[in-house]
Amino acid sequence: xxxxxxxxxxxxxxxxxxxxxxxxxxxxxxxxxxxxxxxxxxxxxxxxxxxxxxxxxxxxxxxxxxxxxxxxxxxxxxxxxxxxxxxxxxxxxxxxxxxxxxxxxxxxxxxxxxxxxxxxxxxxxxxxxxxxxxxxxxxxxxxxxxxxxxxxxxxxxxxxxxxxxxxxxxxxxxxxxxxxxxxxxxxxxxxxxxxxxxxxxxxxxxxxxxxxxxxxxxxxxxxxxxxxxxxxxxxxxxxxxxxxxxxxxxxxxxxxxxxxxxxxxxxxxxxxxxxxxxxxxxxxxxxxxxxxxxxxxxxxxxxxxxxxxxxxxxxxxxxxxxxxxxxxxxxxxxxxxxxxxxxxxxx
Length: 347
Hints:
Layout lengths: L11 E8 L10 H18 L2 E7 L3 E8 L4 H20 L11 E5 L9 H13 L1 H4 L17 H6 L12 H7 L6 H16 L7 E2 L2 E2 H7 L2 E2 L2 H14 L11 H22 L3 H5 L7 H12 L4 H8 L4 H13 L7 H9 L4
Parallel strand pairs: 4-7
Antiparallel strand pairs: 1-3, 1-4, 2-3, 5-6
Helix pairs in contact: 1-2, 10-12, 12-13, 12-14, 13-14
């Protein structure tokens, strides 16, 4: 049976989920869980994703996010590959971590124009946040949803702005539920989920008699009939293009190339040198490696592009320099390079 296409467009919203290979764990301890959150944050920052909700369980994860640029496929490929490599390196493992293709469904959101889009987006956020309740890890009475530490509630929506990642759109989530981004509003959001579980309500939200879990297993969208028709029309318009690879070619490549170029221009200003002068720095100088690391960290342009832009020998050489720079303690870097590294805090 052919795979369903990944429909990508500006400001699309998705619910994605992936399980461990053969239903096995994808994390083994809290350091792994921290690594997952960091890697998700890097993917969101690189791709500009606006994350509404996420939850990490032992053998699977869920995330809901909007893509201002049409880059779901590129971003998910980077995210799952990066997390797999990092986890395997940490535990001296090898091979696939995730079992098959990640699942994704389009979620109706504000740009589709339906009057009921809020209902669909709220239900998918509820589904993610209630995951620990479905697993029996929290019950809303003796143990609050905030006591499960590996979700966007405990790591973000329940915290003040200074203590949560910038890629999590907490204020927008609170607004969806009629709350403000205040201590009271955040507390009321948590209390809503605790009350839901304490009342032993079904933790699998439904719309129009259809549960989200069933749609996740067998469907490709979560929204109104109007939304479905819009998406079908979009697919019909785009299908005749020369190949389905258009989704990962012109638009996405242009976006990330443009961002990579912006970082090069920022480097010129920071280091007070032209790009040609930066390309000519002596071997062993950390400047080019620092710039390459920033481009790699904040975009998903190929390492071949980074090598060509900075006058490095090859993509392999760029990769090697990026790894060396990422491992180098700040105290071993020249002052201006150290300042550059600190300024690139995109998480």
